[in-house]
Design goal:
The protein has one domain. It is built from 3 helices and no strands. It is globular.
Length: about 80
């Protein structure tokens, strides 16, 4: 039984780490693109919105990928870990 609990915790840890990363990435994007209305910013904001929807749906790994895609398209440096 203890082995099962340990295995479950090991499997859940990466998902938890991604869950905490999502809001940080969203704030970083908002900070850099807040008042910009150009095409690049618009595209990045749409990707960030998709990332937020994935985060809210509990799909944190995919959410982080969307946020990273948004940051790359807007040439935003990811926050230091």
């Amino acid at each position: 039984m203890k082995t099962l609990v340990v295995i479950a915790m090991i499997v859940a840890l990466p998902a938890t780490a991604f869950a905490f990363q999502c809001p940080v990435l969203q704030k970083e994007i908002e900070k850099h693109l807040g008042n910009r209305f150009d095409a690049t910013a618009s595209s990045a904001k749409q990707l960030a919105a998709q990332g937020d929807a994935l985060h809210k749906a509990g799909n944190h790994a995919e959410s982080v990928k969307k946020y990273e895609e948004a940051m790359k398209s807007a040439k935003i440096e990811p926050p230091k870990k």
